[in-house]
Design a protein that fits this description.
heterodimer; A: 125 residues; alpha+beta; OB fold (Dihydrolipoamide Acetyltransferase, E2P); six-stranded antiparallel beta sheet; three-stranded antiparallel beta sheet; 4 helices; 21% helix; globular; B: 361 residues; Elongation Factor Tu (Ef-tu), domain 3; 3 domains; six-stranded mixed beta sheet; six-stranded antiparallel beta barrel
Chain lengths: 125, 361
Amino acid sequence: MAIPEELQYTKTHEWVRREDDVATVGITEHAQDELGDVVFVELPEKGASFGAGDAFGTVESVKAVSDLYAPVGGEVVEVNEALNDAPEKINEEPYGDGWIIRLRISEEADLLSAEEYEKVLEEDE
Amino acid sequence: MAAQALRHTPLYEEHKALGARLVDFAGWEMPVQYEGIKAEHEAVRTAAGLFDVSHMGEVVIKGPQAEEAVQRLVTRDVSRLSVGQAGYAAVCYDSGGTVDDVLVYRTPDDFLIVVNASNREKDVAHFREHTGDLDAEVVDESDDWALLALQGPWAVELLQLFTETDLSSIKYYRYEVGEVEGAYAVLSRTGYTGEDGFELFVRPNDAPRVWRLLIEAGAAPVGLGARDTLRLEAGMCLYGNELDAETTPLEAGIGFAVNLDKEQEFVGQESLRREKEEGLKKKLVAFKVEGRGIARHDYPVAVGSETVGSVTSGTLSPTLGEAIGLALVAPDVEDEFEVVIRNRPVAARTVPLPFYKRDKK
């Protein structure tokens, strides 16, 4: 399961890519694999604000519904609208075209390094 | 966790070798998916899929009064079943609530009742409790059988490669005893997918060989995930979702499997008769979600601000690409209502069942 070095992670299996004060958020390859075929994504509105750890949306597979949690706090500056028509991008490219939202960071949180996230996955097994 | 050890079917090693994701299902470690639910679903709709359903129970009712016993236990009039025929039926409590939904096969000497894995022990106890005064024996033969389901438009042709039994001569809901590549098999033209196909009762020792044969011939292994989406599209009930002890077969829309006028009384008959006279307390409806979102089991159904029922099963239909579901609602609910998806009411509209019907050749 790929865990790119340059990203940060949460215990709830989101990833974060930082560029200046903007964080791009998605779910990890492990998370999409656990979910199975993603068929529906409920996205927040642009402009909505979330605190670190708040649920900001849901991702649904054929069988399961899973909440998405904001790894850091901030305002939604962009949502990946393409997921409305092609939610399977989350399965196909979880770290690429399957990104979910971009947040302008206003609240930091303790995030995991790739190495730490890998340990979380090992402990889960 | 001090969980009880999970049971394994004779095909457990096959599932592991195929890389299946295994989950606890009614105390059994079963494959929920192999390649993915959507791909497996599509394989059954367009080609052929193979399911391991060996966790299901096989209970045989035998003895001089076997027929009387079965008549008392199930809602269908089994006197109308000929030898070699199977019929869908419900098993009820005195209250009319449902113990299980089952397939009853009439064999030359006995009756075979195929029961849900989750209900096996409860069913056997119920069967014995209600037939103790009859000269009939209730034998749980579940451990003596593996059960494979080969389903899809290619299923019959594919299975024909490995058996001398003329499969085209076996009608829907009929079975014959034969062999699959030398393995003793009961070949039953039944299924739970809305497609043509067979369910194969084979001996546990033969099961892995028969499984591999069919997989190597091109059948896709299919897990319980796609089994659920397939049966829902076909409008079939699942015990624990549409049916339970608080729901009668009439309410769940399987009145076609209930012979209320059956001469020999069955357990629950009086309650069901009364319910029919007085009117159902709830009814099963099929619906499509018209707004954005997917209805799921246990989501509330509302009309305006009033909760009028709940979703029993719901998914995004892989075949239709639409959110579909079944719900138990108050009898006066009309064609339009809302499904409450995470506190958000989303419009839904009833549709006739089934959601999906195959083209008959």
